[in-house]
Amino acid sequence: MVQTMDILKMAQRGTVDPNMDLLYQKEQQIPGSIHYNIRRYYAQHPWVADDTGMLVYHFNPAKPKENYLELRYCTIGNKYCAEKSCAQCTELPTMNCSGKHQTVDVFTFHFTSTFLHQFVHNVKLSNRKDEVLAFKHPNAFTKIFPLCNRKRNALDALLNHSYSGSLENIFVNAKVHELLLYSLECLIDEKEEGFSCKFLADESGRERIYQAREILLQHIGDPITIKELSRKVAMNECYLKKGFKEVFGTTIFDFYQQQRMEHAKYLLYEKSLSVTDVSALLGYSSISHFSAAFKKHTGLKPCELLK
Asked: What stretches of the chain show up as alpha helix (H) in DSSP?
């Protein structure tokens, strides 16, 4: 089951899921400034996932001209219609749209250190956000965060506007600045626990955290303990738990439960499987345990989602 996080990692490598067809792409690059890319894919299978954002801080003290900040977002639930322009359409790109294709939309915004310098010129660096904008934070890192309504609205606006020419450039520039502002707010200051995980500054450390997440997803129906998980990724249990919370903003247990329940909703609602079958597929020892966990997560009884 492909997740939005997987798409963001593919975007970093310049690849894409082979099960998705590119429907639309818009790209613009201004030398020494912003480079953005918007890609809309047709997902050939149903998606049950959360909108996700990623902030990548690339820092190399030996090559300061190559330093950059990158924002990536993956959103689902929009629809794309090739027969008419969204700019002239009265239906916003949401589930209410009657367009033919439900999409997975991937946004990438690349900021050079030269461009970002304007925001910290003659500014006293008083917090972690300022250090990142000035490229004074000493370690490269990747930050994963959920998308709030403000970020989602700004991204939707980039897909649905009527501007063209120079006015489009002004509009897009304004929205990109909004996204930069809202995403930097997701960073925490140096006194908070998140930046104490120094081992995450090393790429291999981050990759082990990502690997742990992939293993959890592979074990949706076969629960795995944290001890087993730490052995599989060759990382100390304490480091694994702290690193997972830093990268994904949630505990291993809460993440795993959320993914199990989201998959349960998909199996019940989209596949019309019985409560008994879903409980067994997700590795629950009894239907009552599954029903209790499902209601705690969704506020509904499993039977209420059956078609």
From this structure: 4-13, 113-116, 128-133, 149-159, 165-184, 203-218, 226-233, 237-248, 252-265, 275-281, 287-298
